[in-house]
Amino acid sequence: MNPHRRSPFVVVMTVLVFLFLYVPIFVLVLYSFNASRTNVTFEGFITAFGPLQMQGSLVVQSPCGPFHWFCDLTRNQEVMTAARNTLTIAFVSTLISTLIGTMAAIALQRHEFKIKPFAQLSLYIPIVIPEIVMGIGILTLFSQVFTWVNTTFNLPPDLRLTLGMGTVIVSHIAFSVPFVTLVVQARLQGFDPSYEEAAMDLGANELVTFWRVTLPMLLPGVLSGALLAFTLSLDDFVITFFTTGPGATTLPIYVYGLLRRIITPQVNALSTVWILIVLAAVFLIQRLENRERA
Amino acid sequence: MLQRLREDKALQGLLLIAPTLLWMIVLLIIPLILTLVVSFGRRAPDGGVIFTFTLDNYIRLLGLQPDCLNPFACFDPLYVSILFRSLSLAFNTTVIVILLAYPLAYFIARAPHERRNTFLFLVLVPLWTNFVIRVYAWMMLLRTQGAINGVLGWLAGLLGIPFTPLEMLYTPGAVLVGMVYEFLPFMILPIYTSLEKIDPSLYEAAADLGANALKTFWRVTLPLSLPGVVAGTILVFVPVMGTFVVSDLLGGKQVILVGNLIQRQFLDARDPTFGSAASLVLMVLTLIVTLFYTRKFGFGKEIVV
Fold it and tell me: pTM for the whole thing?
């Protein structure tokens, strides 16, 4: 039997499911070039370059031509601030969760200690409980602790603890650490200990062995864990929604707030940029994984 | 001291895991315990919590009133029906997602090696495109003047049939489609992982023993890919139960799920005690379903893709 033989049913289903996955994305991208400001129906592209010219709700001419809404986006201060917040949160939470997650993976894979089963179990919890449960739990914790601290120490208004960047970052670390740990742990499982033994035989101590042998071999796993943490943080809506405060609006929160009021081609332009970034990121991750396998 | 650290592997392990464990205890376990404590509390007039022990919130969730003697007279099915709606939506979404994901995963797993990565790339891109943006895409498609009605109207115009735009947004159907779209990639990847692991010689053996393609699928492929289906089911069922964004944006005020109920208790109604009780019921419900399911079919290692 030829393993690559395909039944027509499977082929048709595959085509249909790929269409289902990509038609919405295509429409989203198409509308980011919409000449209509109200963005209700697609009114064609903006064809002419030049000083901004409107005709009713249609943009006839723009300095950026068809990319009018993308240029418009860069002038939107709220979007720029939200983008900066999103990236700051993602960078900081990735850095910390990768570091402590890798440490935890080494501990779970290489060491025996008493509370190991409990530690391993606690890492599975975020996967099997809905995010909203975790979100409101963290919100309750922060609001109770903050109220207690603020009233007990009678802090002046500018020193009071509030929800903001700090609380979002701390919460993002909480949901990405389990994923980093599990990914690095999976890499460690397929590890040949003879390289490390050879290094020790040649006179390297534990620290040198770790630095020169273990870490370089572990690095691809750590990197894919970090990329996973980074994308989880960029993508997160629910946990951020409950732990964010004034001045810490992220892009998903901003878009959600906007969608409940108006729909403008600016949101589509933002989505298109986002999709392009995702394309590049997925491409990068695949290259990384292939190199590791080779 | 340093000497002891170098020799004591258990101590090293503890030190290595300490930061992660601290994070999990402070931001996962303590919040869950706190949610439990708050759910037994009473709402303060300012929207805060009075810590006592009362079952009022749970009694309300069941549709009864704490001081009502005749449970038949004062039964209010509002919250029970929200729970039931969430459960059945999660169930329907999961079934549809399995039916759509399986053939695609099968196709990718059987594709020549060098093409598999391209197909996986095509699955990963929608998965990592932001959740909210993907809901927005469906708002654009389903609106009364949206893309689907636009295409249908154009087709009807070509055929000369009178056409009134369909009302699709803000219906239960819109929420179902949105959920299926959001979570489909979460099912494709684990099923693909388990299908890819199957040793091709098993197919040859089945063929040698006289099984036709359908029988081979039924007796060999499907049972061996079940761990992937189980993992995918957990990855789909659990988030669908708790999501409020999809129902909020695509269902409007028509479709209220447990997620919306909880969110409103915390942000609009300002009753965190009732919200906490609902959240715990949600957690217990999903845990029961996933435990029952994994007991029956085995726990899928493919859960981390």
Answer: 0.88
